[in-house]
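Standup notes
- DV: blocked on the single-chain target, sequence here:
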Amino acid sequence: MDKKLFDYKEELTNRLRSYYVSREETDDDNLLFFTARFKSGEPRTGETIFYTVRLNINRASGGVEAREKILVGQNDYTLVPSFKNTKITGNDGEVFPLEAILEAIKTVTVSKGYTFTDLSKTEKEKKDDPQMAGAVPAYPPGGYQNGYQKKKKNNKIKIIVISVVVLIISAIIIILASGGKKPEPSSESSSKPAESGVLSTEPASSQPAASEPAASEPENAYLSVGVGKEDLGNIMNNQFYFATAEKKYYPGFDGDNNTHIYSANLDGSELTPIFDGFGWSLVVKDEWLYFAGNPGRQIDNTYCVYRVKTDGSKYEKLSDAYSYGLFIFGDHLYFLKQHPDYSSLFTLYRMNLDGTGEESFPQNAKQAVAYKNRLYYNDGSGNLFSIDPNKEKLSVVMSGLVDRFTISGDKIIYTDTFGNLNVSSLDGKETVKIRDKGAYDIYSLNTYNDRIYIGECDINSFDYDKYGYHNFISSVDFEGNHETEIFDFYSTGLYMNLVGGRLMVFEYVRGGNEMTGRIKSLPAGGGDWIIFES
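- DV (later): unblocked, structure below
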């Protein structure tokens, strides 16, 4: 380590001690990681605030990039400007504004001859760009890109106090209290009947092989034909392509830039719009296609839960709330549903396939899937839970580690809070880091044919002509070896599906004066791409 960098780290560490912020040890000389736990300075509340800041040092350019994370329990306040003015209380009772910490970091950084960039601020400016209105969310709902926003008109932010430690304790309490009996569900129930209302095609040679899902009692979430029964990553990527033995279904935009859900034969013939509007998180069962989306000619970001007859003859709204991550397991439709007051907060719900009997599961959820007769879901605060479908035997698989995850072949594949890629046993006890954080953050994971597919985004690459970010897809084996670059593209979001030997990405970019979407498809190992007809 050179003297300039050493002096910078020492002075910054000493300066932040005055704010009761501690430096954590890392193996990377070019990474600094600081953490703190505060109480709100307002005596009437005294909420616990978890604060972290990660500094990436680029010695070649002389720049320091800062990323803050501000959590109160499971709620992310990082991108809420007014929260930076919150008065916090240090160990000796001194009160100071939260924003003073980053200002101190900036002052020391500049004084030592480095340039300073607050990436949290940059990300918020991109998120709030008014021209993005009506676009597909830039990253999966519930991710850190979606800033915490209070919807009610009350200007005072109500803070939910649930720390990571409390989450773990609550899980233990649930297990002990149940005593083998089904605990009282913390759920909403509904017997409300459903509300009724009356893309380019691949060549035949590129179609997935047709194989009907097993007819026996399912162990895993219901999957598309052409997907291995233990590869669940499409569900985590808002599944935008779903195939049965005879048909395929996907969203697209027509020549007038109107959006539809299409059905077609597997060879691409008989392309037919079956729903006039947008939909993804697709899953087909018993002549119904279930999805999250909206009627209308453009994406309107409401993402309610619907189902439509596979022949397009009828559709029904099943849930009014913003939802994503749909999958069918057993006789229920599972989905992640937005909290009515807090836009960054989601909970795992399920309902009967006709839309009745809606109920929720414990804790919040960012991603969810069913595997080996267990439900796995993470909460957006690093915790990964597992629970029986009957809401029994809730366990904490990993605590404070998991950013995003998928499951394949009895393995949990996940990115940790530092951006590294890891593979773990299903119980979380045996974990191996297989890939260090790369140049860009990982926003998408999937698996196919014993390979892990990694989607990374350069969040500093926004192209106003294309109106998208530069995304990169690569793959590695389960040991992290033989990394292969596969595809790069521009889009406001990074979602990839793998079906029948094909990698598919949903590309959402500017099309004239409006946003437009299309699916690009290429061989899973890389090669020439084609565009789905719509």
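- Follow-up: The two ends are 56 Å apart (CA to CA).
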